[in-house]
TrEMBL record:
<keyword id="KW-0732">Signal</keyword>
<dbReference type="InterPro" id="IPR010611">
    <property type="entry name" value="3D_dom"/>
</dbReference>
<dbReference type="InterPro" id="IPR036908">
    <property type="entry name" value="RlpA-like_sf"/>
</dbReference>
<feature type="compositionally biased region" description="Low complexity">
    <location>
        <begin position="273"/>
        <end position="298"/>
    </location>
</feature>
<protein>
    <submittedName>
        <fullName>Radical SAM protein</fullName>
    </submittedName>
</protein>
<feature type="coiled-coil region">
    <location>
        <begin position="157"/>
        <end position="254"/>
    </location>
</feature>
<feature type="signal peptide">
    <location>
        <begin position="1"/>
        <end position="26"/>
    </location>
</feature>
<dbReference type="GO" id="GO:0019867">
    <property type="term" value="C:outer membrane"/>
</dbReference>
<dbReference type="GO" id="GO:0009254">
    <property type="term" value="P:peptidoglycan turnover"/>
</dbReference>
<feature type="coiled-coil region">
    <location>
        <begin position="26"/>
        <end position="109"/>
    </location>
</feature>
<feature type="region of interest" description="Disordered">
    <location>
        <begin position="271"/>
        <end position="298"/>
    </location>
</feature>
<dbReference type="InterPro" id="IPR057309">
    <property type="entry name" value="PcsB_CC"/>
</dbReference>
<feature type="domain" description="Peptidoglycan hydrolase PcsB coiled-coil">
    <location>
        <begin position="105"/>
        <end position="176"/>
    </location>
</feature>
<dbReference type="Pfam" id="PF24568">
    <property type="entry name" value="CC_PcsB"/>
</dbReference>
<dbReference type="GO" id="GO:0004553">
    <property type="term" value="F:hydrolase activity, hydrolyzing O-glycosyl compounds"/>
</dbReference>
<dbReference type="InterPro" id="IPR051933">
    <property type="entry name" value="Resuscitation_pf_RpfB"/>
</dbReference>
<keyword id="KW-0175">Coiled coil</keyword>
Length: 396
């Protein structure tokens, strides 16, 4: 009988420990899943933000492409204008060369006339011009010959005059052609300056276009790489979530199996109690008292909740006084929790699974909704507590 009692006690202890182990494992796995889901949501927001930035870059690239098209048109116009100026320069150079050739020809004609005129002048110097004319007319043999000689003299005199007129006209033309060459050379200098300016502007436009394209390409590539990295993180997180979900399913299946075993053990326990009651003498039977029953001593009455519980200490706070004025530095071992007053009234007594009965005496910026922060003596104990999902009962 004593061995039977020992076996029943061992089963009871195991049955009591199993639910707590299951709850702790399930809470830890669910916390991990929740953390992964939050990380996935943040990652998704990052991807959406990067996609918006990428779309903005698309729009900016589109605008730059429109500006580049305008720039290309300007470049094309500059190139056409450049070609026109170069054509004008060629024309001017041809005019200059032509004028130079004409001047050479005129100079040759003038040079030839100068020889003829020099000989005529020498002849005139040796005999008086008027005497030659009179002598020519007087020596005529007949009246007809006289008129012939008059015509010949007139022809000679007109020829001399024509030579002089042509010489004067050619010299004048030479001077005008030289002036025209000077004017065309000045125009040529002006056109060359204009073409240099157009070339400089063309190079500047090319540089602006290339710089804009390189900047946009770099920016677009950077955002595309960031999106790729975010997508990789997303895939990793999704894979992690699937792994956690599979683990939860396994734990739930194991919990169901343990529940079946628990039911069988409970049934065996009840059967053992029946056997014990039947076999035990009436004088040895004892009525269980409230003080000897662990279940009775830990029973609580009040509103039950499940909350996410973290921990803190006076070493982690800027002020040693809680919201209700408790000095947690002077009383580091007191049982106190920080709560959301909308969920748990301040000043109320609360039983916390794994912690005990505590006073709701503090609040916190991160304590919102079904969350609590339990007070620990120091930071090390707070870190040891970690994050748990626990059952609480609001006692008053």
């Amino acid at each position: 009988m004593r061995a039977l009692k020992r076996t029943i006690a061992t089963l009871c202890i195991l049955l009591l420990l199993l639910p707590f182990t299951n709850v702790a494992n399930a809470a830890s796995t669910k916390d991990t899943l929740h953390s992964a889901e939050e990380q996935l949501e943040q990652n998704q927001q990052t991807i959406l933000q990067k996609e918006k930035e990428q779309q903005a870059v698309h729009e900016e690239v589109k605008s730059i492409q429109e500006n580049l098209q305008i720039l290309e048109n300007d470049i094309s116009q500059n190139q056409q204008s450049l070609a026109q100026v170069e054509g004008k320069i060629d024309e001017i150079q041809q005019i200059i060369e032509q004028k130079k050739e004409e001047i050479v020809l005129l100079q040759d004609k003038v040079y030839a006339r100068e020889d003829i005129m020099q000989k005529r002048l020498v002849a005139l110097q040796h005999s008086d011009h008027t005497s030659i004319v009179i002598e020519t007319l007087v020596n005529s043999e007949s009246l007809g010959n006289f008129f012939e000689r008059v015509g010949a003299v007139a022809t000679l005199l007109n020829a001399d005059q024509n030579i002089l007129d042509e010489q004067e006209a050619d010299l004048k033309q030479i001077e005008e052609d030289k002036k025209e060459i000077d004017r065309q050379e000045q125009l040529l200098i002006s056109q060359q300056a204009e073409i240099e300016e157009k070339k400089a502007k063309l190079e500047e436009n090319f540089s602006k276009r290339n710089a804009a394209l390189v900047a946009m390409q770099d920016k677009y590539t950077k955002i595309a790489n960031e999106i790729d990295l975010a997508e990789q993180d997303k895939n990793n997180i999704q894979s992690q979530i699937k792994t956690i979900q599979t683990q939860i399913q396994k734990e739930e299946a194991a919990a169901k199996a343990r529940a079946v075993e628990l039911a069988k053990a409970k049934k065996a326990k009840e059967q053992a109690k029946v056997v014990q009651t039947v076999s035990a003498p009436p004088s040895t039977a004892k009525k269980p008292s409230a003080s000897s029953s662990g279940q009775a001593s830990t029973s609580k009455s009040g509103k039950e909740l499940y909350v996410a519980a973290t921990a803190y200490s006076h070493e982690d706070t800027q002020s040693d006084l809680t919201y209700l004025g408790y000095n947690i530095k002077k009383n580091p071992n007191m049982k106190l929790i920080a709560v959301d007053p909308g969920v748990i009234p301040l000043g109320s007594k609360v039983w916390v699974e794994g912690y005990g009965v505590a006073i709701a005496g503090d609040t916190g910026g991160a304590i919102i909704g079904h969350k609590i922060d339990v007070l620990m003596p120091n930071s090390a104990k707070a870190r040891q507590w970690g994050r748990k999902t626990v059952k609480i009962i609001i006692l008053d």
